[in-house]
Design goal:
Layout: E1 20-21, E2 24-25, H1 28-55, H2 66-78, E3 82-90, H3 92-99, H4 101-121, E4 127-129, E5 136-141, H5 142-156, E6 158-161, E7 164-173, H6 176-201
Antiparallel strand pairs: 1-2, 3-5, 3-7, 4-5, 6-7
Helix pairs in contact: 3-4, 4-5
């Protein structure tokens, strides 16, 4: 004789509960189909989520890619509390020309890791590979922008790539055009400082 058990494993009096709908017992075949459809729906949802992540992720850096960047940028530019940071690697062309693409990709990956770390230390995560080359961008609260900007440059530092010295400059602005202008100014300033240093040590 069958005796149902409660969740603790003890026998209880009564008949086992049979799934029902509107007071009518659900046929076994329908119960099986419902479970199968639920499982298939979960698998399809997981597959869509994976496909969406892959479609928005840069393969080299693991950051959001240009597609994700283009989708996020308009909202950021319309929000006065959000600052756009964009970093660019100094002497990147020389590295690619003299050391090759693999060496250039390794430098880009290091810059992406530096920017990501700087953002995460401040509790932020919206970091993207925003260009087809070495441009890395982040969308951050205005109150954290300067600290993240300086920290990203600090983490990357100045590195040797063969016979080239490479560094990372990060510009800041409330829209992408202003951000690019600030980045150009910071890169120019770094070049001037480097020339002065080379003359003093030469």
């Amino acid at each position: 004789k069958y005796q149902p058990r409660n969740p603790t494993g003890q026998f209880v009096e009564g008949k086992p509960q049979v799934p029902s709908r509107g007071g009518q017992t659900i046929p076994l075949r329908e119960r099986f189909i419902d479970k199968t459809e639920t499982a298939e729906s979960e698998i399809l949802r997981e597959q869509r989520d994976v496909a969406e992540r892959e479609a928005n992720t840069d393969e080299l850096t693991g950051l959001g890619n240009q597609r994700a960047w283009r989708r996020a940028l308009p909202t950021a530019e319309a929000d006065s509390s959000t600052i756009i940071l964009t970093g660019d690697i100094n002497n990147m062309k020389a590295v690619n020309d003299t050391q090759g693409k693999d060496a250039g990709d390794a430098i880009i990956k290091r810059a992406a890791d530096a920017f990501k770390q700087a953002a995460e230390e401040a509790g932020e995560s919206r970091v993207f590979r925003s260009g087809i080359g070495d441009e890395i961008s982040a969308l951050v609260p205005a109150g954290k922008a300067e600290a993240i900007q300086r920290r990203a440059e600090e983490i990357f530092g100045e590195q040797d790539a063969g016979n080239q010295k490479v560094s990372f400059s990060v510009g800041r602005g409330d829209n992408f055009t202003f951000d690019e202008s600030d980045l150009t100014a910071r890169k120019t300033a770094r070049k001037v400082v480097r020339r002065i240093d080379s003359r003093q040590t030469g």
